[in-house]
Design brief:
The chain is an alpha/beta fold. 39% of the residues lie in helices and 24% in strands. The chain has 3 domains: 85 residues, Orthogonal Bundle (Arc Repressor Mutant, subunit A); 102 residues, Periplasmic binding protein-like II (D-Maltodextrin-Binding Protein, domain 2), CATH 3.40.190.10; 98 residues, D-Maltodextrin-Binding Protein, domain 2 (3-Layer(aba) Sandwich).
Length: 293
């Protein structure tokens, strides 16, 4: 069934007259009759009884009348909401950001974007990096801010934003805080907590193996908050991205001679199918001075 059939039936239910109903809907009476018959076939029972000039609803017709009226009201309300939204120039952006990227580098950027686009609402979602492309292609997300390499999918384009170093995270107030840089081998004497979702993890492990250092994790998890609470309480150390969102009680320092970095990028749909709002988002990201913020 479709909305036209529903509206035709409601006109008949209101007027109890096929002639008036056909005039109200600018349709011939035979076409209206055929439409009602098709609706009856789809529902499996008679909706209207025509007894000469008299027309009345069957019991089934009376039962579904209220439901059909609700459908039409909902459709009218949706159309009104859409019209008001478009007339006001409102837009909504759904942006995915991986959990390991903190807000520090993005606060001023989003503030500037919203200032330039007051009719745009931004919704930020936590996203699994491995699922980010599927979310973009399906339309669930307009863009994702991730740290993975350039996509091999020709439908996805990536815009590099900034680089982030790997740093040693430890409890504030410990001896590490007095150092400008930390020697890598000093970690051997610490409880090391392994972040399983860390982008730096494989590169860091390769360096440990190359230097034959005895750094073995005493605790492993993909739960960022668990790792950080353990570190903040002085139970051990971990590696974190330079711009990670930190809980209170954690300080970070670079490791001497360790030059591991990752690049944060915005991924989005390539081509003209992108919305005007996401294109403005991309233009600001291109000209934004990420190194200064």
């Amino acid at each position: 069934m479709d909305l036209k059939q529903i509206r035709y039936f409601l006109s008949i239910a209101e007027t109890l007259n096929f002639t008036l109903a056909s005039e109200q809907n600018n349709i011939s009476q035979p076409a209206l009759t055929k439409s009602i018959q098709k609706l009856e076939e789809e529902l499996g029972g008679l909706l209207v009884i025509r007894d000469g000039k008299n027309t009345r609803l069957t019991e089934l017709g009376q039962i579904i009348r209220n439901e059909f009226e609700n459908i039409v009201k909902t459709q009218t309300r949706i159309k009104s909401l859409a019209d008001n939204h478009l007339r006001a120039g409102h837009h909504m952006l759904n942006i995915g950001i991986i959990d390991s990227l903190g807000p520090e580098k993005f606060i001023n950027f989003f503030s500037e974007f919203l200032k330039e686009n007051p009719n745009t609402q931004v919704i930020v979602h936590k996203v699994d990096q491995s699922l980010s492309e599927d979310a973009i292609l399906s339309g669930d997300l307009d863009a994702c801010i991730c740290t993975q390499e350039d996509s091999k999918n020709h439908k996805i384009k990536s815009l590099p934003l900034f680089e982030e170093r790997i740093l040693l995270a430890f409890a504030s107030g410990t001896d590490f805080e007095s150092e400008d840089e930390i020697e890598l081998d000093t970690i051997c004497n610490q409880n090391y907590f392994d972040r399983l979702n860390c982008d730096f993890r494989s590169d860091f492990q390769a360096i440990i193996d190359e230097r034959k250092l005895d750094i073995r994790p005493t605790f492993q998890t993909d739960r960022e908050e668990w790792i950080q609470f353990l570190v903040a309480s002085g139970k051990g150390v971990c590696m974190l991205g330079e711009f990670s969102a930190l809980i209170p009680g954690i300080s970070m320092r670079p490791i001497k001679g360790l030059d591991i970095k990752r690049t944060a990028s915005i991924s989005m749909v390539f081509g003209s199918s992108a919305s005007e709002a996401i294109m403005r988002f991309e233009r600001l990201a291109k000209k934004y001075e990420w190194k200064k913020h």
